[in-house]
């Protein structure tokens, strides 16, 4: 399966951003202040206000998103969102936390978990996040665009799930975050983990 560009207008927003403007092939997404996706764990609250632009995500495929990780405020974030339902989803990408960009994933099945690794060298750079769906798993990879993506996480995922996936943006702590989304593609799922 060759890589196919997914047009921005073929997706549906889970929650509309403040604005989304196409410019020279990129989609400039302005997040609403307080937008986020999280369920209960540790913090005790549920946030269900992310800006995720989703299209069907069948088994045997992968979704790739490229964006500029130019973040400056706590929890500014963007990446790939995979949704089965309001209580079962994954977000993977770059999040600004504790003063630095962090590569991470939140896997939610009733309650959220969170894994992070610092990537300070990605600040202001163009990043690629890829999620493959194959059999009973999602495989998350990420890296600088044009480079070799690294394995981030392997997540159990039921073969029967009807899922949608695509780019997402959140700004939990502020107004005015604009994230340039540069590419949204579908391709074959990764053949192997290593």
TrEMBL record:
Pfam families listed in its UniProt record: DUF1349 (PF07081)
Highest rank taxon of the organism: Bacteria
InterPro entries per the UniProt record, alphabetical: ConA-like_dom_sf, DUF1349
This protein's name: DUF1349 domain-containing protein
Naturally occurring in which organism (per UniProt): Mycetocola reblochoni REB411
């Amino acid at each position: 399966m060759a890589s196919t560009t997914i047009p921005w207008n073929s997706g549906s927003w889970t929650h509309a951003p403040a604005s989304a403007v196409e410019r020279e092939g990129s989609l400039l997404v302005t997040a609403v202040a307080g937008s986020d996706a999280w369920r209960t764990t540790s913090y005790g609250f549920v946030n269900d206000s992310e800006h995720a632009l989703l299209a069907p995500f069948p088994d045997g495929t992968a979704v790739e998103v490229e964006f500029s990780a130019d973040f400056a405020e706590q929890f500014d974030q963007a990446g790939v969102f995979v949704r089965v339902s309001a209580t079962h989803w994954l977000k993977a990408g770059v999040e600004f936390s504790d003063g630095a960009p962090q590569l991470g994933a939140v896997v939610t099945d009733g309650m959220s978990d969170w894994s992070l690794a610092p990537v300070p060298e990605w600040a202001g750079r163009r990043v690629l996040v890829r999620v493959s769906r194959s059999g009973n798993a999602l495989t998350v990879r990420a890296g600088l665009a044009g480079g070799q993506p690294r394995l981030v996480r392997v997540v159990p995922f039921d073969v029967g799930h009807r899922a949608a996936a695509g780019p997402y943006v959140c700004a939990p702590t502020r107004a005015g975050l604009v994230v340039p989304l540069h590419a949204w593609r579908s391709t074959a799922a990764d053949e192997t983990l290593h």
